[in-house]
């Protein structure tokens, strides 16, 4: 249904901005403007500009999505600050705080801008995203509803009341798809090591990861219970899980990995 989602200014259309845009386009997006140096495949009625100075002055987006790398925030914010006088900013940048972004916008001539944070993930491209949001008390119910509407078009949406939790969210669901893709890579390689032809190893590893995800999603059953249902006493899975679930194996390394990513998100704030 064309135009069911409001017009946006999407700043940065790389991996994450592009994933969300794919989901929004599939769901019907009112004419929007994408600011990105590289994209040249944006379908009409949407348009793309290469630099902020090319943005149409009279464009009135309902929301500005900030999806450049956190390291680019200082460069990009002054050039788009004036749009934030009339529309809230939704930042998906890892680590960057509402306070820091609001202060940068004020310094760029737009005091009192409304900044909301969101941490999406790339399955948004196929409507299977997970996005967690944080809004400061100054954001209105209408601002929050707008963000929920947009983000629920590309997956599930949750809100947290404590901004500090956004760093752990980033480590679990923002970065999380990479851990799952790594699992598929490693299962494929291990299958080859056990003598499987490479194309069969790739096919069964990919299908196993996506099929297990679909079963978990559609059944709603706890992951631990689904795991137990695969594990026949004295069978093959039990042997594998004794390796993977040894305290120093996945339980420890996953905790360390999530802690490292959470720390990095905190560092990216400045
Ligand atoms: N990738 C992911 O899975 C996730 C990413 N995020 C967050 O999303 C944000 C974007 O990440 P990601 O999509 O991976 O990054 P990308 O580098 O893939 O995308 C950013 C895009 O913005 C462009 N860009 C940056 N500055 C400008 C500018 N001044 N004018 C025009 N275009 C510009 C970049 O071009 P160029 O490369 O030339 O600078 C690039 O095409 C990050 O803040 C990240 O923390 C959040 C959740 C998940
Ligand atoms: O790796 C990163 O920093 C970004 C944030 C979450 C996923 N990708």
UniProtKB/TrEMBL annotation:
It comes from the Bacteria. It is found in: Cytoplasm. One of its GO terms (molecular function) is pyrroline-5-carboxylate reductase activity. InterPro entries: 6-PGluconate_DH-like_C_sf, NAD(P)-bd_dom_sf, P5C_Rdtase_cat_N, P5CR_dimer, Pyrroline-COOH_reductase. The keyword Disulfide bond does not apply. Gene3D superfamilies: NAD(P)-binding Rossmann-like Domain (3.40.50.720), ProC C-terminal domain-like (1.10.3730.10). NADP(+) binds at residues 67-70. Keywords: Amino-acid biosynthesis, Cytoplasm, NADP, Oxidoreductase, Proline biosynthesis. It is an enzyme of class 1 (oxidoreductase). This is Pyrroline-5-carboxylate reductase. It comes from Gluconacetobacter tumulicola. The gene is proC.
């Amino acid at each position: 249904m064309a135009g069911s989602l409001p017009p946006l200014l999407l700043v940065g259309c790389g991996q994450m901005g592009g994933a969300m845009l794919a989901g929004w386009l599939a769901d019907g997006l009112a004419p929007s403007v994408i600011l990105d140096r590289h994209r040249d495949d944006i379908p009409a009625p949407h348009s793309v500009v290469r630099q902020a100075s090319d943005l149409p002055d009279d464009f009135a987006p309902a929301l500005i999505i900030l999806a450049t790398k956190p390291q680019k925030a200082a460069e990009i914010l002054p050039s788009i600050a004036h749009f934030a006088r009339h529309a809230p900013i939704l930042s998906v940048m890892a680590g960057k705080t509402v306070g820091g972004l609001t202060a940068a916008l004020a310094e760029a001539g737009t005091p009192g801008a409304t900044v909301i944070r969101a941490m999406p993930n790339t399955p948004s491209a196929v409507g299977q995203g997970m996005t967690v949001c944080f809004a400061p008390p100054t954001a209105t119910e209408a601002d929050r509803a707008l963000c929920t509407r947009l983000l629920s078009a590309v997956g599930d949406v949750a809100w947290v009341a404590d901004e500090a939790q956004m760093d752990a969210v980033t480590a679990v669901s923002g970065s999380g798809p990479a851990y799952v893709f790594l699992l598929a890579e490693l299962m494929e390689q291990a299958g080859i090591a056990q003598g499987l032809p490479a194309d069969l190893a790739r096919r069964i590893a990919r299908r196993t990861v996506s099929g297990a995800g679909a079963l978990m999603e559609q059944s709603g059953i706890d992951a631990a219970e689904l795991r137990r249902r695969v594990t026949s006493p004295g069978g093959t899975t039990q042997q594998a899980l004794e390796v993977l679930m040894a305290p120093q194996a996945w339980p420890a390394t996953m905790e360390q990995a999530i802690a490292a990513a959470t720390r990095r998100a905190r560092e990216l704030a400045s």
